[in-house]
Amino acid sequence: MASTKILVPDMGDFKDVEIIEVLVKEGQQIKKNDSLITLESDKSSVEVPSTHEGVIEKINIKVGDKVNKGDLILSLNAESATEEKNEAVSEKKKIEKTEIKEIKPQKPKEIIPIAPTLQSGSKSASPKVRKFARELGANVVEIPGSQRGGRVSEEDVKNFVRSQVTVSGGKIEKKVHKEEYPHEEFGKSN
Questions:
Q1: Is 128's pLDDT higher than 50?
Q2: Using one digit for the tens of pLDDT, what is the confidence trace for 131-171?
Q3: Same domain, 8 and 75
Q4: Is the pLDDT of residue 40 over 60?
Q5: Do 15 and 70 share a domain, yes or no?
Q6: Vertex 106, ends 103 and 111: CA angle to 5°?
Q7: Is the pLDDT of residue 118 over 50?
Q8: Which residues contact 90 (CB under 8 A, 6 or more apart)?
Q9: To the nearest whole percent, how much of the chain has pLDDT over 90?
Q10: 24 located within any domain
């Protein structure tokens, strides 16, 4: 069993760079150049790729940790990847040797286009603004951007957070949106 250690690569003159996202989990099969983690400094966000392929044995970092060049990200079992690859090749050879049966074409299913949403995607904002929004508990994707191309600025984050809370009697309370009309009324036919 060959255990390989994946370390934080040289990222320039950065020290104590924060991990904002871990993109893999223990037991997961990874290939060379698959993204492992996302690091964020004051100036940029960078995904760190794998330098080897294999099955992840142990992840040594978590979201929020500060890392430097040479810190251990994870260890992986490189042999299990080659064993699985060999098994896949032998399975492919077995499949090629079996008889090919006639397959009847299926009718194509109706394709319904889905409108794109930004909720799970990303929105244009600098790493500094993203970090500021996280510190205030806001999601950048939900904030309307006022800059060119819908880019979110620090001022947009402040305004959004202000619009989400109220201060009464010295206490901060989150605003709760109340519907003027219940949704059940719409769409009924008389």
A1: yes
A2: 888 888 888 888 888 888 888 999 999 998 888 876 666 66
A3: yes
A4: yes
A5: yes
A6: 145
A7: no
A8: none
A9: 7
A10: yes
Q: How many domains does the chain have?
A: 2
3-state helix/strand/coil string of the chain = CCEEEEECCCCCCCCCEEEEEECCCCCCEECCCCEEEEEECCCCEEEEECCCCEEEEEECCCCCCEECCCCEEEEEEHHHHHHHHHHHHHHHHHHHHCCCCCCCCCCCCCCCCCCCCCCCCCCCECHHHHHHHHHCCCCHHHCCCCCHHHCECHHHHHHHHHHHEEEECCEEEECCCCCCCCHHHCCCCC
Q: What CATH number corresponds to the domain at position 150?
A: 4.10.320.10
Neighbours of 76 (CB within 10 A): 28
Residue 182 falls within a domain, yes or no?
no
Residue 9 is part of a domain; what is its CATH number? 2.40.50.100
Angle at 135 between CA 11 and CA 167, to 5 degrees: 165
Q: Give the pLDDT confidence score for residue 9 in this predicted structure.
A: 87
For residue 53, being part of any structural domain is answered with yes
**Amino acid (1-letter code) at residue 141:** V
Average pLDDT of every residue of the chain: 76
- The range of the structural domain enclosing residue 48 comes to 3-81
Mean pLDDT of the 41-57 span: 86
